[in-house]
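Weekly puzzle thread! Below is a chain. First person to post its structure in token form gets bragging rights.
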Amino acid sequence: MDDLGELYQQVILDHNRRPRHFGKLTAPSRSAEGHNPICGDHITVYVRTDGDQIAEVSFEGSGCAISRASASLMTQAVSGKPAQEAEKLFRDFQAMVTGDPAVATGAREVERLGKLAALAGVRAFPSRIKCATLAWHALHAALSEAGSVSTE
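Winning reply:
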């Protein structure tokens, strides 16, 4: 395994074992539940906004290593950001994991997406894409006050 691949694997394993921002926020302004019936992942995302800013974000639930790591990495990436920026990051992340040919997969992507690029390898496993994007769909639902999503 090359060094970059090994680093990415370590990032995913670390965020699965010790997820960041795990647990329910005490006073969320919004929340949404996400469910992936194929894998059994079930995640709730909690958001406390301050105007258009994501002041705090957390998640709870259970799921596979990819869904937990993705949720953990997502909370780190969007915390403190404007909701619009979080939505753009969601679109960029989704394009990356689905293998959108319009999205570069080199050093520039790593720089733009930071640690989220650790999940780029998911594109090689189509059944795992829903695992990686579940928390992101739940965040989108929370920000748009939709309530719940399913990745069926």
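Puzzle host: Confirmed. Bonus trivia for everyone else. Strands lie at 30-36, 41-50, 53-62, 148-150.
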